[in-house]
Design brief:
AhpD-like, 154 residues, 0% strand, mainly alpha, single chain, 8 helices
Length: 154
Amino acid sequence: MTMQARIENPAMLLPDTVQAINLLYKAAHSAGVPASTLELVHLRASQINGCSACVDSGARSARKSGETEERLFAVAAWRETPYFTDAERAALALAEATTRLADRSDPVPDEIWDEAARHFSEKELAALVVWLATTNFFNRINATTRQPAPQHWG
């Protein structure tokens, strides 16, 4: 079954949103968090939200940036693999908590925040939070409007 979009991508229908999205992207990517970490948390949040377009584009972008297939395949099971640094694990835990806000009474427990704060400066934490919010924004738009992942041949 091929998924059919309900409407054109809302960001294209409301062009002023593109500028805002670009500013959020720029801010999140200019605070010193390694690009690979931002790619991984984007991918993990998108997996959780079932956003096929973002999983596809996130994995492709990460691979173009030098991410290994081994690590990309393991993102969903990052806790059970040896492929991620302690800082990446802290960021992935923060990504999961930030994405699953309604799953617990304390959405982002102190132990998750404190572990992330051990590895990232305040500015970097701000960038992670903004990037995760932006990722979840994209995921919600794409899932709601059923934006499909593009078909790739070959």
